[in-house]
Design a protein that fits this description.
2 strands, Methane Monooxygenase Hydroxylase, Chain G, domain 1, mainly alpha, two-stranded antiparallel sheet
Amino acid sequence: MNEELSQLIEALREELTQYGELLALMEEQQKLIVNRQPQELLDNLARVNAQMEKIASARETRETGKSVVTDVIGVPKDISFREMTDQLPEEYRPLLDALVEEINTLLEHIQKWLRQNHLLLQRSLDLMQRLVQEVFPQSKPKTYSSRGYVSPVNPPPSSLYEGLI
């Protein structure tokens, strides 16, 4: 069982590392948004997508490790990680608990950065739309319909055109 637990611990450490890398990319992304560096932002987004693939692989490895450990200790595969940890020898529990807690903390931080970055991007898009409206006022403004969809509004006819027809 020591070998299986060592592999699970290594899988958790790798997952933690991958989440740390994603968090660093999220922080970089926010700086790029604030500094209005679109090309660098596109490069960052490509790296974020690649990192998400690494995270998916790390999660799969962790789940495989958990499955192997549950087989060894004879508990159901769908048992929670916490319940599984409670079934393990005492000397492994603090390390496993610490790794899981750190992963969960990183996930919370990543979620916070994602929300902030999304909000910043949304504000940038709104600002660009207003700028386009000011530069090209003949374009139709957009509003929300009664069903919540964004739709163009047909402005009332201008009094400048009334005598021409």
